[in-house]
Amino acid sequence: MTESLESIANALVAPGKGILAADESFPTIAKRFASIGVESSEELRRSYRGMLFMADGASEFISGVIMFDETVSQKTDAGETYPEALKELGIITGIKVDTGAKALAGHAGEKVTEGLDGLRDRLAAYYDKGARFAKWRAVITIGDGIPSNACVRANAHALARYAALCQEANIVPMVEPEVLMDGDHDIDRCDAVTSWALQEVFTALREQGVALEGMLLKPNMVISGKGDANRADVQTVAARTVACLRRNVPAAVPGIVFLSGGQSDVEATAHLDAMNKLGAEQGGLPWQLSFSYGRALQAAALKAWGGKADNYAAGQAAFLERAKANSAARNGRWDTSFEG
Ligand code: 5MM
């Protein structure tokens, strides 16, 4: 492993900083835009994402941005590519390199993430365009009799092969095994499945020779299913998540950056804050605990923008408010006074 992988991974989880996930694929961004009554077009995607990336002062809270393929080649109003413009601001460009979660043959209701074919060449091209970290998301669904061993292991294997290819290309892999919140399962079930998934992922990473010092983990929190009648409170989510991670994530990993997974934006902030406060009470954690939120950083900004150029400043203000709150939470220094 070269030193730069380690230094990039550490820079991405520098104190007070976290990551903006803005890598929605075409169908997902279309769904987000539809929620505010806006049709997805190349120009509106460029403009909306530029609004977030170029928000004045964002680099105080945001260390990196995960982009979708299209965005890496799009340009600011001033004509620079987004990776160039972000580099000048001290923000690191990341790129989603999986090609999506597809139905797992023979396993109804389960998915396996694809995208390994040709990945070596794509990584080299993304490096040339300025990407220094990458992301691959595996999706694990909890339900009757699932996940299956086949699903957990196939996804862990793909994540590990992706991560090894990234490191070969001098790109930091962000490894995202997401256990979905969908369903009426309780927090115990989420804990058990998350532990299982993480164990399989780290076994596969070791097998493929991935240097843990040069990667980041992007997991779900240990949380009740959306439909659970007795959803666990903030302190319980924090305690269960920290305990699960302590059991399953080696200390050599520099940082754990959570996904928000459909939590409300304030909920995602409160959970992160509670975990960092708990970590401090426990005398410190082996890894940095930060955020790589998509919806929890963007929901308010998307609404404030509403697809209108006139609302650009309002969209940026809403984004910065969430970025600032999560930056505080990432240090265990958030409280409700951050919430306007
Ligand atoms: C931003 O959404 C990402 C892309 O999703 P699709 O591939 O389905 O379009 C997604 O991978 C995201 O990076 C993570 O799930 C974290 O986002 P949330 O919204 O869960 O924080």
From TrEMBL:
One of its GO terms (biological process) is glycolytic process. Its EC number is 4.1.2.13. GO terms for molecular function: fructose-bisphosphate aldolase activity. Coiled coil: none annotated. PROSITE patterns: ALDOLASE_CLASS_I (PS00158). InterPro entries: Aldolase_I_AS (IPR029768), Aldolase_TIM (IPR013785), FBA_I (IPR000741). Pathway: Carbohydrate degradation; glycolysis; D-glyceraldehyde 3-phosphate and glycerone phosphate from D-glucose: step 4/4. It catalyses: beta-D-fructose 1,6-bisphosphate = D-glyceraldehyde 3-phosphate + dihydroxyacetone phosphate. Keywords: Glycolysis, Lyase. PANTHER family: FRUCTOSE-BISPHOSPHATE ALDOLASE (PTHR11627). Belongs to the class I fructose-bisphosphate aldolase family. NCBIfam families: FrucBisAld_I (NF033379). This is Fructose-bisphosphate aldolase. It comes from Plesiocystis pacifica SIR-1.
